[in-house]
Amino acid sequence: MTDTTIKTAAMLAIGDELLSGRTKDKNIGHLAEVLTLSGIDLKEVRIVGDEEDEIVAALNALRTRYTYVFTSGGIGPTHDDITADAVSKAFGVPCLHDGEAMRLLGEMYARRNMEFTEARQRMARMPEGSRHIPNPVSVAPGFVIGNVHVMAGVPQVFQAMLDSVVATLPAGARVLSRSIPCPFGEGDIGTLLGAVQKAHPQTSIGSYPHFDGKRFSTELVVRARDGVALEAAAQAIVAMVETLAAERESARTRDLGTGELA
Amino acid sequence: MTDTTIKTAAMLAIGDELLSGRTKDKNIGHLAEVLTLSGIDLKEVRIVGDEEDEIVAALNALRTRYTYVFTSGGIGPTHDDITADAVSKAFGVPCLHDGEAMRLLGEMYARRNMEFTEARQRMARMPEGSRHIPNPVSVAPGFVIGNVHVMAGVPQVFQAMLDSVVATLPAGARVLSRSIPCPFGEGDIGTLLGAVQKAHPQTSIGSYPHFDGKRFSTELVVRARDGVALEAAAQAIVAMVETLAAERESARTRDLGTGELA
Protein backbone atom coordinates (compact mmCIF):
# COMPACT_ATOMS: atom_id res chain seq x y z
CA MET A 1 0.00 0.00 0.00
CA THR A 2 1.31 3.42 -0.84
CA ASP A 3 1.09 6.12 1.79
CA THR A 4 0.70 9.55 0.19
CA THR A 5 2.13 11.57 3.08
CA ILE A 6 5.79 12.43 2.64
CA LYS A 7 8.15 10.37 4.80
CA THR A 8 11.51 11.81 5.78
CA ALA A 9 14.59 10.14 7.19
CA ALA A 10 17.99 10.83 8.71
CA MET A 11 21.01 8.60 9.09
CA LEU A 12 23.43 8.54 12.02
CA ALA A 13 26.67 6.69 11.23
CA ILE A 14 28.64 5.88 14.39
CA GLY A 15 32.33 5.09 14.69
CA ASP A 16 35.74 6.67 15.38
CA GLU A 17 37.12 4.75 12.40
CA LEU A 18 34.92 6.78 10.00
CA LEU A 19 36.29 10.05 11.41
CA SER A 20 39.96 8.97 11.44
CA GLY A 21 39.80 7.88 7.80
CA ARG A 22 40.68 4.29 8.70
CA THR A 23 37.36 3.06 7.30
CA LYS A 24 35.60 4.63 4.33
CA ASP A 25 31.83 4.63 4.86
CA LYS A 26 29.88 2.51 2.38
CA ASN A 27 26.49 2.61 4.08
CA ILE A 28 25.39 6.21 3.50
CA GLY A 29 25.24 5.93 -0.29
CA HIS A 30 23.53 2.54 -0.08
CA LEU A 31 20.87 3.81 2.34
CA ALA A 32 20.32 6.87 0.15
CA GLU A 33 19.64 4.68 -2.91
CA VAL A 34 17.35 2.28 -1.07
CA LEU A 35 15.30 5.07 0.54
CA THR A 36 14.93 6.93 -2.76
CA LEU A 37 13.52 3.74 -4.32
CA SER A 38 11.12 3.43 -1.38
CA GLY A 39 9.80 6.99 -1.70
CA ILE A 40 11.39 8.10 1.59
CA ASP A 41 13.32 11.40 1.54
CA LEU A 42 16.74 11.19 3.19
CA LYS A 43 17.15 14.74 4.51
CA GLU A 44 20.26 14.66 6.69
CA VAL A 45 23.21 12.46 7.59
CA ARG A 46 25.49 12.80 10.59
CA ILE A 47 28.66 10.91 11.48
CA VAL A 48 29.82 10.93 15.11
CA GLY A 49 32.49 9.00 17.02
CA ASP A 50 32.16 6.39 19.77
CA GLU A 51 31.19 8.91 22.47
CA GLU A 52 27.94 8.38 24.33
CA ASP A 53 27.00 12.04 24.78
CA GLU A 54 27.55 12.76 21.09
CA ILE A 55 25.44 9.80 19.99
CA VAL A 56 22.61 10.68 22.41
CA ALA A 57 22.54 14.35 21.35
CA ALA A 58 22.58 13.57 17.62
CA LEU A 59 19.96 10.85 17.96
CA ASN A 60 17.58 13.05 19.94
CA ALA A 61 17.99 15.90 17.43
CA LEU A 62 17.24 13.61 14.50
CA ARG A 63 14.50 11.36 15.88
CA THR A 64 12.28 14.30 16.85
CA ARG A 65 12.64 15.89 13.43
CA TYR A 66 12.31 13.09 10.86
CA THR A 67 9.87 10.23 10.29
CA TYR A 68 12.62 7.60 10.52
CA VAL A 69 16.20 7.44 11.77
CA PHE A 70 18.65 4.76 10.65
CA THR A 71 21.92 4.17 12.49
CA SER A 72 24.99 2.16 11.52
CA GLY A 73 27.80 0.84 13.70
CA GLY A 74 28.71 0.26 17.32
CA ILE A 75 26.71 -2.92 18.02
CA GLY A 76 29.59 -5.43 18.17
CA PRO A 77 31.12 -7.16 21.22
CA THR A 78 33.93 -4.78 22.22
CA HIS A 79 34.20 -1.89 24.70
CA ASP A 80 33.90 0.72 21.95
CA ASP A 81 30.53 -0.70 20.83
CA ILE A 82 28.25 1.59 22.83
CA THR A 83 25.33 2.22 20.49
CA ALA A 84 22.80 0.10 22.45
CA ASP A 85 23.65 1.99 25.66
CA ALA A 86 23.46 5.38 23.94
CA VAL A 87 20.12 4.62 22.27
CA SER A 88 18.70 3.40 25.60
CA LYS A 89 19.85 6.62 27.25
CA ALA A 90 18.30 8.73 24.48
CA PHE A 91 14.95 6.98 25.04
CA GLY A 92 15.34 6.94 28.85
CA VAL A 93 14.92 3.16 29.16
CA PRO A 94 17.27 0.47 30.56
CA CYS A 95 19.65 -1.42 28.26
CA LEU A 96 19.08 -5.13 28.90
CA HIS A 97 20.24 -8.53 27.63
CA ASP A 98 17.31 -9.51 25.39
CA GLY A 99 16.11 -13.08 26.04
CA GLU A 100 15.47 -14.01 22.41
CA ALA A 101 18.80 -12.49 21.27
CA MET A 102 20.62 -14.45 24.03
CA ARG A 103 18.95 -17.65 22.77
CA LEU A 104 19.80 -17.02 19.10
CA LEU A 105 23.43 -16.14 19.85
CA GLY A 106 23.83 -18.93 22.43
CA GLU A 107 22.62 -21.53 19.90
CA MET A 108 24.92 -20.22 17.21
CA TYR A 109 28.04 -20.35 19.39
CA ALA A 110 27.06 -23.82 20.66
CA ARG A 111 26.77 -25.05 17.03
CA ARG A 112 30.22 -23.65 16.33
CA ASN A 113 31.75 -25.04 19.53
CA MET A 114 32.66 -21.53 20.58
CA GLU A 115 32.34 -20.06 24.03
CA PHE A 116 29.44 -17.59 24.48
CA THR A 117 31.67 -15.10 26.28
CA GLU A 118 30.60 -12.06 28.27
CA ALA A 119 31.84 -9.94 25.34
CA ARG A 120 29.68 -11.89 22.86
CA GLN A 121 26.70 -11.56 25.21
CA ARG A 122 27.05 -7.78 24.84
CA MET A 123 25.65 -8.21 21.33
CA ALA A 124 22.32 -9.32 22.87
CA ARG A 125 21.88 -6.04 24.76
CA MET A 126 19.24 -3.57 23.55
CA PRO A 127 16.89 -0.93 24.95
CA GLU A 128 13.93 -2.44 26.83
CA GLY A 129 10.92 -2.66 24.53
CA SER A 130 12.91 -2.97 21.27
CA ARG A 131 11.90 -5.19 18.35
CA HIS A 132 14.58 -7.24 16.56
CA ILE A 133 15.96 -6.55 13.12
CA PRO A 134 17.02 -9.99 11.86
CA ASN A 135 20.65 -10.54 10.86
CA PRO A 136 20.88 -13.33 8.26
CA VAL A 137 24.65 -12.81 7.91
CA SER A 138 26.04 -13.11 11.45
CA VAL A 139 22.96 -13.67 13.69
CA ALA A 140 23.45 -10.80 16.23
CA PRO A 141 20.27 -8.77 15.68
CA GLY A 142 19.79 -5.06 15.15
CA PHE A 143 16.80 -3.44 16.81
CA VAL A 144 14.00 -0.89 16.40
CA ILE A 145 12.80 1.39 19.16
CA GLY A 146 10.32 4.15 18.38
CA ASN A 147 11.27 5.48 14.94
CA VAL A 148 14.96 4.56 15.31
CA HIS A 149 16.41 1.58 13.41
CA VAL A 150 19.76 0.41 14.78
CA MET A 151 21.90 -1.60 12.38
CA ALA A 152 25.44 -2.96 12.11
CA GLY A 153 28.31 -1.03 10.51
CA VAL A 154 29.73 -3.93 8.46
CA PRO A 155 28.27 -3.19 5.00
CA GLN A 156 27.08 -6.76 4.23
CA VAL A 157 25.22 -6.88 7.55
CA PHE A 158 23.91 -3.31 7.25
CA GLN A 159 22.51 -4.06 3.80
CA ALA A 160 20.84 -7.30 4.88
CA MET A 161 19.28 -5.61 7.93
CA LEU A 162 18.11 -2.67 5.82
CA ASP A 163 16.39 -5.02 3.36
CA SER A 164 14.22 -6.45 6.10
CA VAL A 165 13.54 -3.02 7.65
CA VAL A 166 12.46 -1.47 4.36
CA ALA A 167 10.07 -4.37 3.71
CA THR A 168 8.18 -3.38 6.89
CA LEU A 169 7.88 0.37 6.15
CA PRO A 170 4.85 1.67 4.23
CA ALA A 171 6.09 2.77 0.81
CA GLY A 172 5.87 6.55 0.36
CA ALA A 173 4.79 8.34 -2.80
CA ARG A 174 7.73 7.60 -5.08
CA VAL A 175 9.75 10.48 -6.43
CA LEU A 176 9.66 10.28 -10.22
CA SER A 177 12.61 11.48 -12.26
CA ARG A 178 13.54 12.26 -15.86
CA SER A 179 17.11 12.61 -17.03
CA ILE A 180 17.85 14.85 -20.03
CA PRO A 181 21.30 14.85 -21.64
CA CYS A 182 22.57 18.32 -22.52
CA PRO A 183 25.61 18.99 -24.75
CA PHE A 184 26.40 22.31 -23.00
CA GLY A 185 28.33 23.06 -19.81
CA GLU A 186 26.75 24.45 -16.66
CA GLY A 187 28.07 27.95 -17.36
CA ASP A 188 26.17 28.03 -20.66
CA ILE A 189 22.85 26.87 -19.28
CA GLY A 190 22.93 28.10 -15.66
CA THR A 191 20.82 31.24 -16.07
CA LEU A 192 18.20 29.65 -18.35
CA LEU A 193 17.98 26.57 -16.15
CA GLY A 194 17.47 28.75 -13.08
CA ALA A 195 14.49 30.37 -14.87
CA VAL A 196 13.03 26.94 -15.71
CA GLN A 197 13.39 25.89 -12.05
CA LYS A 198 11.62 29.08 -10.94
CA ALA A 199 8.74 28.43 -13.35
CA HIS A 200 8.35 24.83 -12.11
CA PRO A 201 8.49 25.07 -8.31
CA GLN A 202 6.85 21.66 -7.75
CA THR A 203 9.92 20.01 -9.25
CA SER A 204 13.56 19.82 -8.23
CA ILE A 205 16.03 20.25 -11.09
CA GLY A 206 19.63 19.19 -10.70
CA SER A 207 22.51 19.60 -13.12
CA TYR A 208 25.49 17.26 -13.12
CA PRO A 209 28.50 18.34 -15.15
CA HIS A 210 30.63 15.89 -17.09
CA PHE A 211 34.03 16.58 -18.65
CA ASP A 212 35.22 14.14 -21.31
CA GLY A 213 38.73 15.62 -21.44
CA LYS A 214 37.78 18.01 -24.29
CA ARG A 215 34.51 19.68 -23.43
CA PHE A 216 31.90 19.94 -20.70
CA SER A 217 28.42 18.50 -21.06
CA THR A 218 25.66 18.18 -18.46
CA GLU A 219 23.08 15.70 -17.34
CA LEU A 220 19.92 17.48 -16.25
CA VAL A 221 17.70 15.60 -13.82
CA VAL A 222 14.15 16.67 -12.91
CA ARG A 223 12.54 15.10 -9.87
CA ALA A 224 8.95 15.41 -8.66
CA ARG A 225 6.27 13.35 -6.98
CA ASP A 226 3.66 14.69 -9.43
CA GLY A 227 3.90 13.15 -12.91
CA VAL A 228 2.23 16.08 -14.71
CA ALA A 229 4.53 18.63 -13.06
CA LEU A 230 7.52 16.42 -13.92
CA GLU A 231 6.54 16.20 -17.58
CA ALA A 232 5.97 19.96 -17.88
CA ALA A 233 9.39 20.77 -16.43
CA ALA A 234 11.08 18.10 -18.56
CA GLN A 235 9.51 19.57 -21.72
CA ALA A 236 10.68 23.06 -20.74
CA ILE A 237 14.23 21.72 -20.33
CA VAL A 238 14.17 19.88 -23.66
CA ALA A 239 12.95 23.10 -25.33
CA MET A 240 15.74 25.06 -23.62
CA VAL A 241 18.41 22.63 -24.87
CA GLU A 242 16.98 22.68 -28.43
CA THR A 243 16.86 26.49 -28.50
CA LEU A 244 20.47 26.73 -27.31
CA ALA A 245 21.57 24.15 -29.90
CA ALA A 246 19.77 26.03 -32.70
CA GLU A 247 21.40 29.31 -31.61
CA ARG A 248 24.83 27.69 -31.64
CA GLU A 249 24.23 26.16 -35.06
CA SER A 250 23.06 29.49 -36.47
CA ALA A 251 26.10 31.27 -34.97
CA ARG A 252 28.38 28.59 -36.44
CA THR A 253 26.81 28.95 -39.92
CA ARG A 254 27.06 32.74 -39.71
CA ASP A 255 30.74 32.46 -38.71
CA LEU A 256 31.36 30.08 -41.61
CA GLY A 257 29.64 32.59 -43.92
CA THR A 258 31.84 35.37 -42.66
CA GLY A 259 34.83 33.12 -43.11
CA GLU A 260 34.03 32.58 -46.78
CA LEU A 261 33.71 36.30 -47.36
CA ALA A 262 36.95 37.14 -45.57
CA MET B 1 55.67 24.81 14.06
CA THR B 2 53.62 22.40 16.07
CA ASP B 3 50.78 23.78 18.18
CA THR B 4 50.24 21.64 21.27
CA THR B 5 46.59 22.60 21.82
CA ILE B 6 44.14 20.11 20.39
CA LYS B 7 42.44 21.26 17.20
CA THR B 8 39.02 19.91 16.28
CA ALA B 9 37.12 19.98 13.02
CA ALA B 10 33.77 19.26 11.45
CA MET B 11 32.77 18.71 7.85
CA LEU B 12 29.56 19.84 6.18
CA ALA B 13 28.94 18.13 2.83
CA ILE B 14 26.27 19.91 0.80
CA GLY B 15 24.18 18.52 -2.05
CA ASP B 16 20.84 16.85 -2.84
CA GLU B 17 22.73 14.33 -4.99
CA LEU B 18 24.49 12.91 -1.89
CA LEU B 19 21.13 12.33 -0.17
CA SER B 20 19.38 10.82 -3.21
CA GLY B 21 22.17 8.30 -3.73
CA ARG B 22 22.93 9.67 -7.21
CA THR B 23 26.46 10.62 -6.12
CA LYS B 24 28.53 8.65 -3.63
CA ASP B 25 30.56 11.01 -1.46
CA LYS B 26 34.33 10.67 -1.83
CA ASN B 27 35.39 13.73 0.15
CA ILE B 28 34.57 12.71 3.74
CA GLY B 29 37.06 9.83 3.86
CA HIS B 30 39.72 11.91 2.13
CA LEU B 31 39.31 14.83 4.55
CA ALA B 32 39.39 12.40 7.49
CA GLU B 33 42.74 10.97 6.33
CA VAL B 34 44.31 14.36 5.64
CA LEU B 35 43.21 15.84 8.98
CA THR B 36 44.45 12.79 10.91
CA LEU B 37 47.87 13.24 9.29
CA SER B 38 47.78 16.93 10.27
CA GLY B 39 46.99 16.24 13.93
CA ILE B 40 43.48 17.73 13.65
CA ASP B 41 40.63 15.68 15.17
CA LEU B 42 37.63 15.35 12.87
CA LYS B 43 34.76 15.11 15.39
CA GLU B 44 31.59 15.30 13.33
CA VAL B 45 30.33 15.20 9.75
CA ARG B 46 26.96 16.34 8.46
CA ILE B 47 25.41 16.02 5.02
CA VAL B 48 22.54 18.34 4.11
CA GLY B 49 20.72 19.10 0.84
CA ASP B 50 20.62 22.27 -1.24
CA GLU B 51 18.35 24.15 1.18
CA GLU B 52 19.54 27.48 2.54
CA ASP B 53 17.99 27.21 6.00
CA GLU B 54 19.48 23.73 6.52
CA ILE B 55 22.95 24.83 5.46
CA VAL B 56 22.84 27.95 7.66
CA ALA B 57 21.64 26.02 10.73
CA ALA B 58 24.21 23.22 10.34
CA LEU B 59 27.03 25.67 9.68
CA ASN B 60 26.23 27.81 12.72
CA ALA B 61 26.00 24.71 14.94
CA LEU B 62 29.38 23.43 13.72
CA ARG B 63 31.43 26.63 13.46
CA THR B 64 30.74 27.64 17.07
CA ARG B 65 31.72 24.22 18.37
CA TYR B 66 34.87 23.17 16.49
CA THR B 67 38.20 24.84 15.68
CA TYR B 68 37.67 24.44 11.92
CA VAL B 69 34.79 23.67 9.58
CA PHE B 70 35.29 22.35 6.05
CA THR B 71 32.46 22.34 3.52
CA SER B 72 32.15 20.61 0.15
CA GLY B 73 29.77 21.33 -2.71
CA GLY B 74 27.36 23.96 -3.97
CA ILE B 75 29.81 26.51 -5.39
CA GLY B 76 29.20 25.93 -9.12
CA PRO B 77 27.32 28.12 -11.62
CA THR B 78 23.75 26.77 -11.44
CA HIS B 79 20.65 27.72 -9.45
CA ASP B 80 21.15 24.85 -6.97
CA ASP B 81 24.63 26.14 -6.05
CA ILE B 82 23.69 28.20 -3.01
CA THR B 83 26.58 27.61 -0.61
CA ALA B 84 28.08 31.14 -0.97
CA ASP B 85 24.68 32.69 -0.15
CA ALA B 86 24.09 30.37 2.80
CA VAL B 87 27.56 30.97 4.28
CA SER B 88 27.08 34.75 3.90
CA LYS B 89 23.74 34.48 5.69
CA ALA B 90 25.29 32.40 8.50
CA PHE B 91 27.93 35.11 9.02
CA GLY B 92 25.46 37.98 8.51
CA VAL B 93 27.45 39.62 5.69
CA PRO B 94 26.53 40.37 2.07
CA CYS B 95 27.37 37.88 -0.71
CA LEU B 96 29.23 39.83 -3.41
CA HIS B 97 31.00 39.28 -6.74
CA ASP B 98 34.66 39.27 -5.64
CA GLY B 99 36.83 41.49 -7.85
CA GLU B 100 39.85 39.20 -7.97
CA ALA B 101 37.69 36.13 -8.65
CA MET B 102 35.92 37.99 -11.49
CA ARG B 103 39.33 38.84 -13.00
CA LEU B 104 40.65 35.25 -12.73
CA LEU B 105 37.51 33.73 -14.22
CA GLY B 106 37.13 36.46 -16.87
CA GLU B 107 40.71 35.86 -18.10
CA MET B 108 40.22 32.10 -18.20
CA TYR B 109 37.04 32.30 -20.29
CA ALA B 110 38.64 34.91 -22.58
CA ARG B 111 41.61 32.53 -23.17
CA ARG B 112 39.17 29.75 -24.04
CA ASN B 113 37.02 31.99 -26.26
CA MET B 114 34.05 31.26 -24.04
CA GLU B 115 31.45 33.74 -22.91
CA PHE B 116 31.75 34.81 -19.25
CA THR B 117 28.01 34.35 -18.70
CA GLU B 118 25.96 35.56 -15.75
CA ALA B 119 25.83 31.92 -14.57
CA ARG B 120 29.64 31.63 -14.69
CA GLN B 121 29.95 34.95 -12.84
CA ARG B 122 28.01 33.30 -9.97
CA MET B 123 31.20 31.34 -9.24
CA ALA B 124 32.93 34.63 -8.27
CA ARG B 125 30.41 35.35 -5.51
CA MET B 126 31.52 34.96 -1.89
CA PRO B 127 30.82 36.49 1.53
CA GLU B 128 32.29 39.96 1.95
CA GLY B 129 35.67 39.71 3.71
CA SER B 130 36.53 36.19 2.48
CA ARG B 131 40.02 35.06 1.51
CA HIS B 132 40.45 32.88 -1.61
CA ILE B 133 41.27 29.18 -1.62
CA PRO B 134 43.10 28.71 -4.93
CA ASN B 135 41.72 26.21 -7.45
CA PRO B 136 44.54 24.87 -9.65
CA VAL B 137 42.12 22.50 -11.45
CA SER B 138 39.31 24.72 -12.74
CA VAL B 139 40.19 28.29 -11.54
CA ALA B 140 36.92 29.18 -9.69
CA PRO B 141 38.19 29.73 -6.12
CA GLY B 142 36.90 28.41 -2.82
CA PHE B 143 36.97 30.77 0.13
CA VAL B 144 37.66 31.08 3.86
CA ILE B 145 35.62 33.21 6.23
CA GLY B 146 36.21 32.98 9.97
CA ASN B 147 36.98 29.33 10.70
CA VAL B 148 34.93 28.04 7.75
CA HIS B 149 36.68 26.69 4.62
CA VAL B 150 34.36 26.45 1.61
CA MET B 151 35.48 24.05 -1.10
CA ALA B 152 34.12 22.43 -4.26
CA GLY B 153 32.29 19.10 -4.30
CA VAL B 154 34.10 17.61 -7.32
CA PRO B 155 36.69 15.35 -5.63
CA GLN B 156 39.70 16.43 -7.73
CA VAL B 157 38.97 20.08 -6.97
CA PHE B 158 38.13 19.41 -3.31
CA GLN B 159 41.43 17.60 -2.84
CA ALA B 160 43.49 20.31 -4.54
CA MET B 161 41.79 23.02 -2.46
CA LEU B 162 42.28 21.03 0.75
CA ASP B 163 46.00 20.65 0.03
CA SER B 164 46.46 24.41 -0.01
CA VAL B 165 44.21 24.95 3.03
CA VAL B 166 46.06 22.38 5.14
CA ALA B 167 49.40 23.97 4.26
CA THR B 168 48.18 27.19 5.96
CA LEU B 169 46.92 25.59 9.20
CA PRO B 170 49.27 25.18 12.18
CA ALA B 171 49.97 21.44 12.57
CA GLY B 172 48.46 20.05 15.78
CA ALA B 173 50.06 17.50 18.07
CA ARG B 174 49.97 14.39 15.89
CA VAL B 175 48.03 11.38 17.08
CA LEU B 176 50.42 8.43 17.21
CA SER B 177 49.16 4.92 16.56
CA ARG B 178 50.29 1.30 16.88
CA SER B 179 48.56 -1.55 15.12
CA ILE B 180 48.71 -5.03 16.67
CA PRO B 181 47.50 -8.08 14.73
CA CYS B 182 45.44 -10.49 16.82
CA PRO B 183 44.49 -14.04 15.69
CA PHE B 184 41.27 -14.05 17.78
CA GLY B 185 37.80 -12.68 17.05
CA GLU B 186 36.24 -9.76 18.92
CA GLY B 187 34.06 -12.07 21.00
CA ASP B 188 37.17 -13.81 22.39
CA ILE B 189 39.02 -10.65 23.32
CA GLY B 190 36.21 -8.16 24.05
CA THR B 191 36.18 -8.39 27.85
CA LEU B 192 39.97 -8.41 28.25
CA LEU B 193 40.38 -5.58 25.77
CA GLY B 194 37.79 -3.52 27.64
CA ALA B 195 39.89 -3.94 30.80
CA VAL B 196 43.05 -2.83 28.96
CA GLN B 197 41.19 0.26 27.68
CA LYS B 198 40.01 1.08 31.22
CA ALA B 199 43.57 0.77 32.55
CA HIS B 200 44.93 3.07 29.81
CA PRO B 201 42.49 6.01 29.68
CA GLN B 202 44.93 8.33 27.88
CA THR B 203 44.72 6.10 24.81
CA SER B 204 41.93 5.13 22.45
CA ILE B 205 41.86 1.45 21.52
CA GLY B 206 39.89 0.27 18.50
CA SER B 207 39.30 -3.26 17.28
CA TYR B 208 38.63 -4.03 13.65
CA PRO B 209 37.37 -7.52 12.87
CA HIS B 210 38.41 -9.41 9.76
CA PHE B 211 36.83 -12.59 8.38
CA ASP B 212 38.88 -14.60 5.90
CA GLY B 213 35.99 -16.92 5.02
CA LYS B 214 37.01 -19.48 7.67
CA ARG B 215 37.73 -17.65 10.89
CA PHE B 216 37.67 -14.21 12.48
CA SER B 217 40.80 -12.31 13.40
CA THR B 218 41.17 -8.73 14.62
CA GLU B 219 43.40 -5.75 14.08
CA LEU B 220 43.86 -3.84 17.32
CA VAL B 221 44.78 -0.18 16.97
CA VAL B 222 45.92 2.02 19.87
CA ARG B 223 45.95 5.77 19.36
CA ALA B 224 47.34 8.46 21.68
CA ARG B 225 49.08 11.80 21.50
CA ASP B 226 51.49 10.74 24.28
CA GLY B 227 54.16 8.28 23.12
CA VAL B 228 54.78 6.77 26.57
CA ALA B 229 51.06 6.15 27.16
CA LEU B 230 50.82 4.63 23.68
CA GLU B 231 53.70 2.23 24.31
CA ALA B 232 52.32 1.12 27.69
CA ALA B 233 48.89 0.32 26.21
CA ALA B 234 50.44 -1.44 23.22
CA GLN B 235 52.54 -3.65 25.51
CA ALA B 236 49.45 -4.53 27.57
CA ILE B 237 47.66 -5.58 24.38
CA VAL B 238 50.59 -7.66 23.13
CA ALA B 239 50.70 -9.40 26.54
CA MET B 240 46.94 -10.02 26.35
CA VAL B 241 47.22 -11.63 22.90
CA GLU B 242 50.19 -13.80 24.01
CA THR B 243 48.35 -14.97 27.15
CA LEU B 244 45.26 -15.89 25.13
CA ALA B 245 47.41 -17.75 22.58
CA ALA B 246 49.21 -19.68 25.34
CA GLU B 247 45.87 -20.62 26.93
CA ARG B 248 44.55 -21.86 23.60
CA GLU B 249 47.69 -23.88 22.96
CA SER B 250 47.55 -25.44 26.42
CA ALA B 251 43.84 -26.29 25.97
CA ARG B 252 44.61 -27.84 22.58
CA THR B 253 47.43 -29.98 24.06
CA ARG B 254 45.16 -31.05 26.93
CA ASP B 255 42.39 -32.02 24.47
CA LEU B 256 44.91 -34.02 22.43
CA GLY B 257 46.04 -35.78 25.65
CA THR B 258 42.42 -36.63 26.52
CA GLY B 259 41.95 -37.87 22.97
CA GLU B 260 44.85 -40.35 23.35
CA LEU B 261 43.40 -41.73 26.60
CA ALA B 262 39.88 -42.17 25.21
From TrEMBL, chains A, B:
Q: Check the record and name the InterPro entries matching this protein.
A: CinA (IPR050101), FLAD1_M (IPR056596), MoaB/Mog-like_dom_sf (IPR036425), MoaB/Mog_dom (IPR001453)
MoaB/Mog domain residues: 10-172
In which organism is this protein found? Ciceribacter selenitireducens ATCC BAA-1503
Which PANTHER family did the record assign? Answer: NICOTINAMIDE-NUCLEOTIDE AMIDOHYDROLASE PNCC (PTHR13939), NMN AMIDOHYDROLASE-LIKE PROTEIN YFAY (PTHR13939:SF0)
Q: Which domain of life is it from?
A: Bacteria
Q: Which Gene3D superfamilies match?
A: MoaB/Mog-like domain
SMART domains this protein is in?
MoCF_biosynth
What protein is this chain from? MoaB/Mog domain-containing protein
